Amino acid sequence: MIAIILGVYGGMADAKAGNPPYLWRLISHAKRSKELLISGFAAISNLLAFGIILDVVFQFVLYKAVHPGAALIVGPILICVPYAVSRALTNRLSRLLGTK
């Protein structure tokens, strides 16, 4: 849920700045992709760590065992995908509605 809220916030900021959606910029602006990845990571780095920790805790509670590889894959996917999608959709919707 927090990843979606952060994505909406980022999408609104992108729309105010007149930037295209985040994923599109990441793909189409190859020269700035490193900068864009760093800014996106900075926005969700604490959330990523929290997602990984929660995945480890849930694994321990449910299975009485911890699989760090799975936590390192599942945690970020469950955070990054909603963040990126909500950021892109918010930007498109905001630009479509003319919200600034």
Which characteristics define this entry?
100 residues, mainly alpha
Summarize the structure.
By secondary structure, this protein is mostly helical.
Characterize the structure shown.
- With 100 residues, this protein is mainly alpha-helical.
- The protein has one domain (2-97).
- It has helices spanning 2-17, 22-28, 33-63, 68-97.
- Helix 1 (2-17) crosses helix 4 (68-97).
- The longest helix is centred in the middle third of the chain and has 31 residues, at 33-63.
- The model has no long low-confidence stretch (mean pLDDT 85).
Largest sheet: none
Radius of gyration: 16 Å
Helix content percent band: over 70%
Shape: elongated
Written as H for each helix and E for each strand, in order along the chain, the element string is HHHH
When the domains are counted, the total is: 1
Secondary structure class reads mainly alpha
Mean pLDDT: 85
Q: How many strands in all? A: 0
Q: Distance between the terminal alpha carbons, to the nearest Å? A: 23 Å
Q: What proportion of the residues form beta strands (DSSP E)?
A: under 5%
